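Changelog excerpt

This revision adds worked examples to the README so contributors can see how folded entries look when concatenated. The first example is reproduced verbatim below.
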Amino acid sequence: MRKIGNRCDSDDATVEGRTASPDYDRRRLSDTDIAEVIEAYRSGATTRALAESYGVSQTTIKKKLRERKIRKRGADTNSPRRLQR
C-alpha cells in the first residue's frame, strides 16, 4: 500500500495517514456474502447485526446496500424533516 510521498511497510496498514490497530483484520465481502446481506437486510436484520456477523464495519454494510440501490428501511422521502434539507 502506498501513501502519497511515502512508502509504507507491508505490516503497517496505513490509509490516508491513518494506521489501523494491529489486531484489525481487513475483510472483504464476496458477491455471495453481499447477496446474503441483502436478503437478510430485506428480511429485517439490522446493519449492526450484519456487520458483527460478517466481521466488517456497519459503514461497510451500509455502503454495500447503497451501492446496490437497496432502500434504507423507514426512509420516507416525503417526510417534513427530509423536505427541509
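The second example, added in the same revision:
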Amino acid sequence: MSRKLVRPRDNRMIAGVCSGLARRFGMSAGMMRLIFVLSCLLPGPQFLIYIALWIVMPNENRYATVR
C-alpha cells in the first residue's frame, strides 16, 4: 500500500475516484465501483465523500509533473 492516492488517467468512468482508490488498496476498479454503488443503498454521505475526494485527489499526470 505504498502507492500514492491519485486519480489515474486511464480506467475512469466519471472522475477516476473509484479507480484511484482501487489502485491504492490493491483491488480491481470494478469491485470498488460495485462497493460504492452498494454503499449508496445505505443512508449516509457517500456522494458528498465522492465529490470531496474528486476535489482533493490530484490527477495522475499532475502528480507526475510535480514529482
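Reviewer comment on example two: The chain is about 55% helix and 0% strand. The first helix runs from residue 17 to 25.
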